[in-house]
Amino acid sequence: MSVLFSRFDLFRLLSLERKQSIRSYNQNSLELGLDSASSSSEKPQDADYSTYIPSLSYELEGLILARSPRSEYWKISFANKRFASLVKSGELFKIRRNIGFIEPSVLMLASGENCWWGFDQGFSSRRRLPVLPSDICFASGDKESLCAGTHLLVSGRELEGLMIWRYELAMNKWYKGPSMIYPRCLFASATCGNSAYVAGGIAVVGDGMSGTHIIHNTVEKYDPETRSWTPLPRMNRPRKLCSGCYMDDRFYVIGGRTANEELTCGEFFDEEKNEWTLIPEMLKDNPVLSCHSPPLIAVVNNELYSIEASSNQLKVYLKGSNSWKRLGLVPVRADYNRGWGVAFKSFGDKLLVIGASTVSSSRSSMAIYTCNPDPRSDGLPNWELLDNGRIQLQKEAKGREAKEATKLCTLTLDNETKIWLLQELRRAPRFHHHCMRILKFRSWLAI
Predict the structure, then answer these.
(1) In percent, how much of the chain has pLDDT > 90?
(2) CA 74, 75, 81: angle at the middle one, nearest 5?
(3) Strand order in 195-199's β-sheet?
(4) May I ask which residue range the UniProt record assigns to the signal sequence (predicted)?
């Protein structure tokens, strides 16, 4: 059951500037009000400034707002200037990190689209990001992306050369840069909390397309707090078209190619030791295809999973034996284009795969699936279909913009956050004596 806070309710419950009361409630909405004894002399109003409801501390306000769904932050910005400042300054995201509040989401640029979209964990809601203000060369060319904290980094080629554009979730805005120390493409990347890593790839030395292509073994780390890159020790092998992941507190780079051969080895970087360790024949069980994509890998609960592009098999890596165990077929066709056109990522404690559906004969029918993998299981994973062509992003963009205006005054909280909010309100300074009298619990706690 969802609980909806109206925009006026946000003023009543959290604002230090407006101490308002709640007078009525319905089955799906929480509303605050004074009892008849304290309000008999006043007529109900939309803005009832009562001296009987104490204010909440700034700290508690921040904790409450930080636990609200991230997709609802734009609504919080309309409550008052302080709330807008909390959202735009990024303070709510810092609070989330400090309390360990994790909310997976997906930022995606679909083929043929000119705008990025953000999706919540269940793909039940989405919003369009601002248009990336790049030149036509960047917009129409191939791009690579990675996340670091609340930053989305998109790398591609502009007319003047390789370029990175940065989207900051808190500001809801695109910025140019910062460029890598060694600009590159076709690199491996991985994210760990508030940091991102890149390794390998190709750099072009010289003028334009006539320049010399150099395969990198250089490595860099991005810090969203300073918006800068830091060089790390170089890998043992230069490689391009490789894949990266973060597992067991280590940055792994797997597969790829040199100028002359396919690589089946992997290696990992240990930050404590500040060194790279080579893993021979890490991909020896995966057949090498010509013109194949970088290895399709994802990490969930410190377990490494891979999709074999030639057979659509989901595999899990057995660290002790340096081998792979088959878990069954994935519900998308990775073999259509040798792995190209398939997204395979971790999504919280689930695997997320997006690609051409196995239940449709059309290659243009894209499906979105998730599953909770079990590396010890011998049975097929239970894949949950989230979408099979229902989401039409570009077509619905204008219609959704109009509909969102009607949803401006609602804020949805999940059940866990509702219970936490009750507990915090009961402990809030000066609120204890009024809490049970003010709050109407009957519909709110019908979970």
Answers:
(1) 35
(2) 85
(3) 188-192, 195-199, 219-223, 228-232
(4) none
